[in-house]
Amino acid sequence: MCVSHHSLQTYLRRKMLFLIFFLSVLLLPFQVTWATGCDVTDGGDTGGSGGSGATLRERVANTACDPINIKVPLVTLISSVSDTAFLNSAIPITRDLTINGNYATVKWAGTTNSTTTRVFLVNATGITVNLNNITIKDGNTTNSGSTNGNGGGIRHQAGTLKLQNCIITGNKTGNQGGGIKAAASTVLINSCTFYNNTASTAGPDCHGTVATTSANNIAENSACFVTTSPAPVPLTVNVSGTSGSGGTGKVTAAPVTGGPGATLVCTNSTTTYTSGSTAPCNSVFKSDGNVTLTATEDSGSVFTGWSGAVGTECENTTTNPLTVTMNVAKTCTATFNISGVNNVAPSIGTQPLSTTIKSGDPPVTLSVVASGTPTPNYQWYEGTSGTTTTPVGTGSSFTTPALSSSTSYWVRVSNSQGYLDSSTATVTVDTAPPPPPPPPPPAMFGLGLKKDGTGTGKVFSDTGMECGSYCTDEFESSKTVNLSAIPDLGSV
Questions:
Q1: pTM of the model as a whole
Q2: Which residues, 6 or more positions from 385, have their beta carbon under 8 angstroms from its beta carbon?
Q3: In this structure, what DSSP letter does residue 458 have?
């Protein structure tokens, strides 16, 4: 039988398709799930196995998840979830794994639990674990015994652990390593901040041996680190859109000099978490170090400026990027408008008014009426206009305390477009003594006049009395009254 070349190709193609279908059905039960990135979208805490949920504990248990990306700003662990009698409520890591925190916080719901409530335990030979951009907070192993209590925030027993741009704070241990207990030199710590960790025996921040300690910010003495530095200073970032306009964007804060400090990303966008933590958000940076704030608007929005406390770098400026010196705790707000919204510097329509009160009168409320875009902020001061040494209140009105002496006040009205100082309003307190009480009224005496005799006539007084047969009147004590008797015709 003769078979054409075209028919042979068709026959072989059909056989190949059948073979592929047969193999796919045969191997269906043995399909491999390839490792892929897994997002943490649930900030709660659930136990169990299989990693079918979206909590951090479940993602770590799911061996198909690597890397893990935390996409909620806060993960709260609870002591009722337990893995083994030894680990209790810690999240155990026993495989190669990278967890990208995206500046999220992983913390315990409380710090008074009687069980071992550290955050992470790394315990498997030959594994490599990377923890990036995570704040590890409020672990507490003070009631877990001398051995199990090591490592309030993280306990490292085996494998390689790398911490990058992490903040370790508020963790406690009843033994060694309040922040972290490092079992061997396979712990690498870079650009991390440690503060407010405590240990009953040794190493409030870290105890053990670490291989790398570059650019770390260590607040307390630690067995891991050679040098210490002052406690870090907090920076809070707010992201604001003009009321009613819905402008959105994000702020990135990163160390410039004198680091370290975790990079902070803050946004008011609700569409995605990957661009940063939901505002307001905060981080800590090295004391007296510099931080660069960079504002980036979303599509359709425009950055309009910074605002912050009087005398700080963020006070009413449009400089972007902006360098902030972390010598004290500071708060900076970035404002974004929708493109096309006109910004207007503040103007004052009604100035605060001076007034006079008596000593002992109740407090006085001063007010100002102002406008501007974005909506203005108000800061009241004691003193004459322009003197900022004594801030006393915020808001469009201010109620004074009870005053015993005359005091002056004024208000600064500001937004991202600038500021305007009001006139001085003086509350004058009248301390003059009250007038004496009026003297009592004089004593009064009555005077009565009665005519007698057979004749007729009238009696008059220089005070207006005029009597027929009888009349009376009252006069003050010592008053002289002159009387005149005038007879009628034929009478004497």
A1: 0.52
A2: 410, 421, 422, 423, 424
A3: E
